[in-house]
Amino acid sequence: MARPEEMYQCQTANCGYIYNPDRGCRKRGVPKGTPWEEVAEDFRCPVCGAGKKMFRPLAGPGSVVAEGRRAAN
Ligand SMILES: [Zn+2]
Q1: CATH assignment of the domain containing 10
Q2: Which of 6, 13, 27, 63 could form a disulfide with 57 if both were Cys (CB 3.0 to 4.6 A apart)?
Q3: How far is the CA of 14 from the centre of ligand 1 (A)?
Q4: CA 5 to ligand 1 center in whole angstroms
Q5: Ligand 1 mean position to 67 CA, how many Å?
Q6: Domain membership of residue 29 as a residue range
């Protein structure tokens, strides 16, 4: 089971897709068990098409919580 620090959420308004390394992303060809750091830099959100820069971890440094704001949804 992935920890919140290892799960990354798309920050685009009205999206909210969460990348879970336990699941990977079949639609984008990312195998199960792939940590976010190893996901290709040209990865795009399977829901809205946003790039990796639009993703934030659910907890820990750089997360939406650490920055004092919450996801749009
Ligand atoms: Zn998205």
Answers
A1: 2.20.28.10
A2: 63
A3: 8
A4: 18
A5: 19
A6: 4-57
